[in-house]
Amino acid sequence: MHEYSIVQAMFDRIEETARAHHARGVRRVSVRIGRGAGVEIALLRTAYETFRAGTLCEAAAIDIEEVPVRWGCPHGHGELRIGMGLSCAECGSPARLISGDEIILDRLELEVA
């Protein structure tokens, strides 16, 4: 379950950002997780809830946005539609992943003095 490692790394980054802004706490955490990132959203949420006690995120809700997997032509012929396969219908080039593999700490709402 690498979700626990992801949450720990996220807490490290949150604490670093909070210190840089002299925050007393965090009120909300927003993340974007690609459906192709190999992350179980329910496990990530559970790990967050389990490990936030005693951290700056103790009172912070978490918002998780799932990002769909999208593929496109590397030569600019557009995005591939679902069911088309992983090559461009126009030029035959192998598709390029546009989105869906990311794990991004997107936004923090901090409590500052």
Folded structure, characterized:
The chain is an alpha+beta fold. The protein has a domain at 3-67 and 101-112: 2-Layer Sandwich (hypothetical protein PF0899 fold). 26% of the residues lie in helices and 32% in strands. It is built from two helices and five strands; from the N terminus they run H-E-H-E-E-E-E. It has helices at 3-20, 41-51, and strands at residues 23-34, 61-67, 70-72, 96-99, 103-112. The strands form two sheets. It has a three-stranded mixed sheet with strand order 2-1-5. Helix 1 (3-20) packs across helix 2 (41-51). It starts with a helix and ends with a strand.
Which structural class should the secondary elements be placed in?
A: alpha+beta
Number of β-strand runs: 5
Instruction: Summarize the biggest pleated sheet.
Output: 3 strands, mixed
Count the helices. How many?
2
Run of helices and strands:
HEHEEEE
- Based on the structure given, which CATH architecture of the domain at 3-67 and 101-112 is correct? 2-Layer Sandwich
